UniProtKB/TrEMBL annotation:
InterPro entries: Acyl_transf_WS/DGAT, O-acyltransferase_WSD1-like, O-acyltransferase_WSD1_C, O-acyltransferase_WSD1_N. GO terms for cellular component: plasma membrane. Residues 5-267 form the O-acyltransferase WSD1-like N-terminal domain. It is an enzyme of class 2 (transferase). It catalyses: an acyl-CoA + a 1,2-diacyl-sn-glycerol = a triacyl-sn-glycerol + CoA. Residues 315-461 form the O-acyltransferase WSD1 C-terminal domain. It comes from Amycolatopsis echigonensis. Keywords: Acyltransferase, Glycerol metabolism, Lipid biosynthesis, Lipid metabolism, Transferase. This is Diacylglycerol O-acyltransferase. One of its GO terms (biological process) is triglyceride biosynthetic process.
């Protein structure tokens, strides 16, 4: 039987265009060890792990006439040097130069005729640092069969990769005749899928929304209620701008201890305070009840089954919560209180956030969880939320790629067709790192918003009841 894309995975390919590439990114910054950390070493490290990620050596092959969803086939011309590329900044390269490069790389679609991922080894950074910028299509990472490359190449100990003999032999690509015969055979058994696939390829909006309801029933009750209008929801251009925020986990924990809630509540409150100031700086007239609706995908467990669950690579239970962020509320403490109540209502439904379990997973699980969050957001109509915010906890001990220690990790979340901003948050080794991906025209000032997140955090630190 052919290895056919799921309906959800295929939808990510169908809705993609030049202005909205459907890949998730990550920016990992490493401290170069005294023994060195070269492009050749990175190639060896990735090559030694590809056997665990067969999807990374497969490409998508369309079925003639769109009689069925595309299939995964081995790339008989797979070239690791094409997917792991070498880049450099003019020395001494600054962080701003790196993030400008990230914005340009993220605006480009992945080549559809090749496996849907790329990694860039970036040298020339000041402070004897190097960076790894990854791009992985949303159709690739499902959290069970395939995880993100950024998770697989990171280890808890600084050891060089073991020698690896790659015995992979690609299977022959099926002929057009075989693709059609397989599709016809499946159509006889499930005739409705042919109509659904043709509609999906044609971009049928009704089909997309109905599939969203089936895929993420947790937000079905609010799918008919549109998100509040505002400058975050415009038709995006093909350009991107990327900015980051560096904060300390202990600050969020202190605020949580002073005012209650969770660390995630405090993160959302800091973002809310920043969005409030950002909107005011753009001349928006905010009423006291004004809100911005965020889609907040979170890994969850069912209370009844968590005790008996055996995690695969991560587990792909990701619930998509819609949270109305109270940007009209002038009090930082009340904003935090509103968010805490809203999140508690979701989590009291019998499903708990699986943060503790995720920290036990080997490698760097946030890389995969952000990809799963993007899948959750990408399967929904953009009309029901203003922006996506993903937050995934990472290990609080150092991790390594070979002998190079990971210093910082910033997620790069994709933009939806009518959403100008997406925010990813990752905690790691005492830090909380924000990645802000914006449309170059509509959200050109994401750097300003990043500074406002820091100010909002300071406001929460000094706030009193």
């Amino acid at each position: 039987m052919p290895d056919r894309l799921s309906a959800l995975d295929a939808s990510f390919l169908y809705v993609e265009d030049q202005t909205t590439p459907m890949h998730v990114g990550g920016v990992a910054i490493f401290e170069r060890p005294s023994s060195g950390f070269t492009y050749e070493q990175v190639l060896d490290l990735v090559a030694a792990r590809l056997a665990f990620l067969p999807r990374y050596r497969q490409r998508v092959l369309a079925v003639p006439g769109h009689l069925a969803r595309p299939v995964w086939v081995d790339d008989v011309d797979f070239d690791l040097n094409y997917h792991v590329r070498r880049s450099a900044l003019p020395q001494p390269g600054s962080d701003d130069q790196l993030f400008d490069l990230v914005a340009r790389l993220m605006s480009r679609r992945l080549a559809p005729e090749r496996p849907l991922w790329e990694a860039y080894f970036v040298e020339g950074m000041a402070g004897d640092r190097v960076a790894m910028v990854t791009k992985t299509h949303q159709s690739v990472v499902d959290g069970v069969g395939t995880i993100d490359l950024g998770q697989l190449i990171l280890d808890e100990t600084p050891e060089p990769p073991e020698p690896f003999e790659d015995r992979w032999v690609p299977r022959r690509e099926p002929s057009r005749t075989q693709l059609v015969l397989d599709a016809m055979s499946e159509t006889v058994q499930r005739p409705g899928e042919l109509i659904e696939n043709v509609r999906a390829v044609a971009g049928d909006a009704a089909t997309t929304v109905s599939k969203a309801v089936e895929t993420l029933s947790g937000v079905a009750a609010t799918i008919t209620r549109p998100a509040p209008p505002g400058p975050l929801n415009v038709r995006v251009s093909g350009g991107r701008v990327f900015s980051v925020v560096r904060t300390r986990l202990e600050d969020f924990r202190k605020i949580r201890a002073d005012h209650g809630g969770t660390v995630n509540d405090v993160i959302l409150a800091a973002i809310t305070g920043a969005l409030r100031e950002w909107l005011l700086s753009r001349g928006e007239n905010l009423t006291p009840t004004e809100t911005v609706r965020a889609l907040v995908p979170m890994a969850v467990t069912d209370a009844e089954t968590a005790e008996f669950a055996t995690p695969a690579l991560v587990g792909n239970e990701v619930a998509a919560y819609l949270i109305d962020l109270p940007v009209g509320e002038p009090s930082a403490v009340l904003r935090l209180q509103h968010i805490g109540h809203a999140m508690a209502e979701h989590l009291n439904s019998g499903r708990s956030v699986a943060a503790r379990g995720l920290l036990k997973v080997s490698g760097f699980a946030p890389a995969t969880l952000h990809s799963l969050g993007a899948r959750a957001g990408g399967s929904l109509s953009g009309r029901i939320f203003n922006l996506m915010i993903t937050n995934s906890p990472g290990p609080q001990v150092p991790v390594y790629a070979g002998e190079a220690r990971l210093v910082e990790m910033f997620p790069v979340m994709p933009l939806m067709r009518t959403q100008a901003l997406a925010i990813g948050v990752t905690s790691y080794h005492g830090g909380v790192y924000f990645g802000l991906n914006g449309d170059r025209k509509a959200a050109f000032d994401v750097g300003l918003l990043g500074g406002m997140i820091e100010e909002a955090l300071e406001e929460l630190k000094g706030a009193h009841w």
